[in-house]
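Inputs:
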Amino acid sequence: MKAAALASRGRAYDVARVRADFPILSRRVNDRPLAYLDSAASSQRPRAVIDAVTRYETHCHSNVHRGVHTLSQEATTAFEGARERVRRFLNARSPKEIIFTRGTTEAINLVANSFARPRLGPGDEILITWLEHHANIVPWQMACAATGAKLRVAPIDERGELRFDGFEALLSPRTRLVAVAQVSNALGTVLPVERIVRAAHERGIPVLLDGAQAAAHGGIDVQALDCDFYAFSGHKLYGPTGIGVLYGREALLREMPPWQGGGDMILSVTFEGTTWNELPWKFEAGTPNISGAVGLGAAIDYLGSIDPAAVHAHEQALLATATAALLRIPGLRVIGTAAAKAAVISFTIDGIHPHDLGTILDHEGVAIRTGHHCAMPVMDYFGVPATARASFACYNDEGDIDRLVTALQRAREVFA
Amino acid sequence: MDLKDLYRDVILDHNRQPRNFGPLSPADASADGHNPLCGDRLTVYLRLDGDTIRDVHFDGKGCAISVASASLMTEAVKGKDRRAIANLFEEVHATLTGDAATPPASLGKLAALSGVREFPARVKCASLCWHTLNAALAHECAPVTTE
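Outputs:
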């Protein structure tokens, strides 16, 4: 099926065919066809994911790792099968290194609580960058507040690129962990994560990569990246919400205490003491999001079937076309002009607040994100309270760019 | 639902040229308001004469709805006492949330905000200045938010 899909789609990327895989794209918003340009916030699901979840709910659901009956075994097989798909997707060495979480945020919080806190003391440091999403800032602030450690922030430049010399200068003998995004959600900047990992490892410092915005582009290889932790969310990868993944190097995970207690994460419990379960279940207390994991597995299969490399090339072409088209609009300023960018365009238009742009575009059936994108420090750096952000995914086409440009012209008319 | 219901000429005019804009110094009371959803921030400054607002200014950055609403509010509350302002706020709130079928005549120019009811995501934009005014009247020092 996978090979057949690949062969039938061939080298040329057939976006019309991909669009047909996403039922929501046929709906109308405010009496106009939907132009969905907010996939960086949450991507839509293909029929394959919706069907996989429905099939699981309809035929296989029970609790996992519990019963001897057929449904429990089928549910366990489906759940652990999804874990194996994630392992292959990330090229992790072992499924023991794949922990299901609610999403990127919970994955980072797990590392902050189980890995960072026990290792942090007064004067120790965590190093992040100015580009981080709040999910890769706040957990570290909380860990620092609890331990007396300090949060260090590597600087960026006016293009929204990491200043690598500034980053390197902040790597100190007290740095206990480096935590950085692979792709900035607010600006689309692709960070030089290979260099970051190398520089940190040369000093013996472990690295967490926030892959929330990067995972949908595929080609993630945690062994090649050599990162110690990698976090991502299902719903930014054409999968369901409420499911995400923490990859962790097995040797580190084995040393880490669990951060939540409950069922499934134990081998034996007495009132005198408890023995933790094996990896990865030690970090999965309570009944997990089984259907979410099944959906995520289906999303990974889907991404494989449309060829992540072809999707990436398609999105980069859209990024170039859209950037050129937007820059022709008078008063429009693109925030974030890094040389390497994901298909995300943050922008402002003179005299029109992003929130007003968002309402007017919605009225035209065009969905974009407006606001601070959970990255207030980035907004502060560029001296704007908010931006409008258009983001492109595998199902967007040039028609969506035309709709965006036309809707922005409409906004300029309203505010003329 | 028409965009012109939201972005009426009065709104666009007050957004372009906000009235009573800028800090008031000295002020008898002031308060900061923040809408974390869209990053709108504004400050309301008051000069009071007992229970009556003698002068009112606002300052800050925001979308057209929040700026115009604040501008219209400053015009509407100047010279009014706390009781009259509380009544007015109730009428504005009912208009924004759609509880009032047609805006009462007593709203005057504030009736221009009635289109907001068709855009629920924008109600907070229009009400931020009123919450901030109430905070200033209560001499609250802590910033208010719409959350």
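Remarks. The first strand of chain B starts at residue 29 and ends at 35. Chain B has a mean pLDDT of 90.
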